[in-house]
Structures are given as C-alpha cells and as structure tokens.
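Field notebook, page 250. I keep forgetting to write these up properly, so this time I am using the form the group agreed on. The chain and the ligand, manganese (II) ion, are recorded exactly as supplied. Prediction of the bound pose follows.
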Amino acid sequence: RALEMDLREALARDELKLFFQPLIGRRDNETTGFEALLRWQHPTRGLVPPSDFIECAEQWGLIGRIGEWVLNEACRTAATWPSHLTVAVNLSPNQFASGDLVDQVRAALKASGLAPARLELEITEGLLLHDSAKTLEQLAALKALGVKIAMDDFGTGYSSLAYLWRFPFDKIKIDRSFVAEMQDNVAIADILRTIALLGQTLNLEVTAEGVETQAQARLLAEMRCDQFQGFLFGRPMPVGDIPSFLMAAT
Ligand code: G
Ligand code: G
Ligand code: MN
Ligand code: NA
C-alpha cells in the first residue's frame, strides 16, 4: 500500500523521468532515434525500474495518467532533437481500454509540434490477444494521425504471425531473448533470419533488441535486420546525455 500511495504522488512530485535508449540503423550505423523508457526516482528507494511498478500502476488505475505524461514528455523532448530522429513510446494495453488514447496522442503531438511520423508507438502482442474491434479501431485512428506502430517483444507472445496480417504494423522489434540465444542455437538463428525475411516481404522494418556484442551485430546485419538496439550501442540514458551521445557518434 505504501508503494501505491507513493506512486499516486509521484507525478505531482515530479519523480517520474524518461530515459532514452538509441536505435541504430544498419545501413550507416547512425542513430535513427531513441526509445523512451520510464524511470521512477523514488525519494528513498532510489531509481525504480518500470518492471517494479508498471504492473502496479495498471492495477491501481494509474497507467492512464502516467501514460499521458510519458507521451507528452517524450514528444516534447523529441521536438528538441534534429528532425531526422524518432522517438518510440511503450503503450500498455490498459491505455487502449480507457478510450481516450487517440485524443492523448493527438494532443501530445499538437502541444509539442512534433511531426507525427517521428512518433512510434510500441505495443505488445498481449494487446491483440482479445482482438477487440475497439482496439483495432484505435490502432487505425492512430495510424491515420500519421504515427508509426511497432510490435514490441516480437516472438514471445502466443501467435505472433497471426497478428501481422490483422493490422498494418510499420515495424517489429524482435525480443532480446532471441538475440541472446542466437549464437548457441542454430534453430534460433534460423528463426531470426526468417523473421528478417518476413519483414522484407511484408515491408515491415525489423529491429533487433538486446544487441550486446559486435558478433551479434554482425550476424544480425548479415540477416538484414534494419535496426539495432542494445547495450553495445547505448544504454538508456538521461535526456541531458543525448547531445554528447550524438556528438560522439559522428
Ligand atoms: O527500461 P527497462 O528495460 O527496465 O523496461 C522494462 C519494461 O518496461 C520494458 O518491457 C518496457 O517496454 C516497459 N516500459 C518502459 N517504459 C514504459 C512506459 O513508459 N510505459 C509502459 N507501458 N511500459 C514501459
Ligand atoms: O520490452 P522493451 O523492449 O520495451 O524493453 C526494453 C528493455 O530492454 C529496457 O528495460 C532496457 O533496459 C532493456 N535492454 C535494452 N537493451 C538491452 C541489452 O542490450 N541487453 C539487455 N539485457 N537488456 C536491454
Ligand atoms: Mn519497447
Ligand atoms: Na521489447
């Protein structure tokens, strides 16, 4: 309960922060954008990762307001970056249930002046599990705004492939568990190669997550994954570190 009270206050107390992790394009190894990752700077517990409080926020009905804050903060921040850089925001299924997500996204774009094509919304397969007409309607409305939709943690859900034709995603992000196993397991490497090919066939961008070594990056590049994300290229960083990261990369 103590945590719940604290989380209810966290927004008002300005304790939520966004960190940003770079995404790297295969063609030129340039940064193409950043994924916004939520952190809670708790007064006594220190920096709390989202795995420790997102689920609670969902249960306690707080994810709507937190998600709205994340959208606004991410768009406001990205609007200050060079205009070729994108920002990715993670959405929880509950944000679709609440019904005002599309209005929130529209408002965040308007308030920040960010071009819609620079905003990428990451959803997980869990969202599509119930396959409600209302969810698909909202996804279509979001795409109509001009934002991009990515399927996150691809491969970890129940029937990944079935979802790819139900909705026109712009990108799939291959879960980092596949990348971690790729060199020890030929079958996993084959699956990765097949997903990359699937992306080319369906005209989807394919991002490999959790890239930690040069060897992994080289193999994934050979498979023609479009984009990399992982500790090899950059850890999630506070917003103030982004300018020097971009400088160092050039
Ligand atoms: O940053 P980290 O690797 O600890 O993130 C852990 C998980 O939390 C990831 O699965 C990520 O998708 C999720 N997450 C991070 N930030 C947000 C956010 O702003 N909203 C939602 N719904 N999930 C987030
Ligand atoms: O589910 P989602 O893709 O949103 O999760 C992003 C999470 O993955 C963040 O918590 C981030 O810290 C973590 N992450 C990003 N890159 C790497 C990596 O190279 N290795 C590992 N182990 N985790 C990573
Ligand atoms: Mn993500
Ligand atoms: Na992911």
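OBSERVATIONS:
- The two ends are 48 Å apart (CA to CA).
- The chain is about 45% helix and 20% strand.
FOLLOW-UP: compare against the apo run.
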